[in-house]
């Protein structure tokens, strides 16, 4: 009887450990597919830029380098608080601190989106949006540049929104004690997703803001 | 407690490094270094994403070879895609 129980406990321990590994493998495969989705767009960017280097250079002058840099710092900071959130739960077992770090991460995401909204708003005011008469009158390469700009930063902003939603659910789980030190896979994977969003922005920033 | 402190400091150190690299890349871009500029800012972006992947996403302590290799594999695939297409477009 006793050995039976011991055996059952060992099995459970292995199951938990294995399921943690599986969830991590699944998350990394998902991250791989996300990298390839953006990779296709980076490929398009590289080809159009090779064909229209001068137009890309000119169009890039229209973007606010200050806003781009500000948003880069905001996202890097959100990655720091996200990493500290996981660390506070898994290593320190301090759920309250984790909750605060996650709240800070979500607030940074919101800040990023507000800055992005102002940026896009300014472009729309100047008639620089797909199919606008002002933009259509410009050289071909500039039209392509702004098409890629809206597509790539738009898809990225969508990822920021999804990341904020995921982290909000995780925050809710933590406050209801459903995510704990022993059961924190969703926290870890949600934060991995958030870091991925940061990594993509790390490449979008120089390609659109720093080529003028 | 000291141990805890060290780890916190490591995360903040990585963040400081990322901010410093951002400052470096913005400065380089405004120096007008010509055609090589794009290579410099991309190299800095690669360095920044490596920091995030290794330390924030914990690939530096990942024991499973499969997970360690997934991102390098994705990067190789992309490098082949973009590199080969690029040579085609440029030599046409």
Q: Which percent band covers the strand fraction of chain A? A: under 5%
State the secondary-structure class of chain B: mainly alpha
Low-confidence stretches of chain B: none
Q: What count of helical segments of chain B does DSSP give?
A: 3
Rg over C-alpha atoms of chain B, rounded to the nearest angstrom: 17 Å
What's the tally of helices of chain A?
Answer: 7
SSE string of chain B: HHH
Residues in β-strands, percent of chain B: under 5%
Q: Provide the helix percentage of chain B.
A: over 70%
Distance between the termini of chain B: 63 Å
**Helix coverage percent of residues of chain A?**
over 70%
Note down, in words, how this protein is organized.
The complex is a heterodimer of chains A (212) and B (92). Chain A is 85% helix and 0% strand. Chain A has helices at 2-51, 53-60, 65-90, 95-125, 133-136, 140-175, 185-209. The longest helix of chain A is centred in the first third of the chain and has 50 residues, at 2-51. Chain A is elongated, with a radius of gyration of 22 Å. The N and C termini of chain A lie far apart (75 Å). The model of chain A has no long low-confidence stretch (mean pLDDT 92). The termini of chain B are far apart.
């Amino acid at each position: 009887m006793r050995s039976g129980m011991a055996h059952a406990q060992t099995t459970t321990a292995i199951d938990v450990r294995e399921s943690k590994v599986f969830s991590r493998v699944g998350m990394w495969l998902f991250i791989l597919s996300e990298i390839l989705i953006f990779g296709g767009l980076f490929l398009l960017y590289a080809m159009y830029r090779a064909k229209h280097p001068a137009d890309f250079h000119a169009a890039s002058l229209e973007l606010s380098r200050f806003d781009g840099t500000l948003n880069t710092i905001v996202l890097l900071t959100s990655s720091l608080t996200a990493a500290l959130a996981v660390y506070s739960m898994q290593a320190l077992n301090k759920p309250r601190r984790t909750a605060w770090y996650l709240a800070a991460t979500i607030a940074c995401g919101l800040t990023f989106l507000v800055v992005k909204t102002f940026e896009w708003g300014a472009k729309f005011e100047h008639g620089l949006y797909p199919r606008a008469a002002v933009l259509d009158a410009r050289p071909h390469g500039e039209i392509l540049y702004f098409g890629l700009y809206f597509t790539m930063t738009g898809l990225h902003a969508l990822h920021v929104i999804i990341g904020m939603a995921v982290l909000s659910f995780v925050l809710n789980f933590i406050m209801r004690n459903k995510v704990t030190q022993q059961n924190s896979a969703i926290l870890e994977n949600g934060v991995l997703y958030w870091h991925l969003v940061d990594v993509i922005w790390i490449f979008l920033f120089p390609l659109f803001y720093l080529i003028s | 407690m000291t141990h805890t402190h060290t780890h916190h400091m490591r995360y903040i150190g990585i963040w400081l490094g990322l901010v410093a690299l951002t400052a470096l890349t913005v400065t380089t871009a405004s120096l007008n270094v010509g055609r090589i500029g794009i290579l410099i800012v991309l190299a800095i972006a690669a360095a920044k994403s490596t920091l995030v992947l290794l330390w924030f996403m914990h690939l530096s302590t990942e024991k499973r070879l499969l997970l360690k290799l997934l991102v390098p594999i994705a990067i190789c695939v992309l490098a082949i895609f973009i590199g080969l297409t690029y040579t085609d477009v440029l030599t046409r």
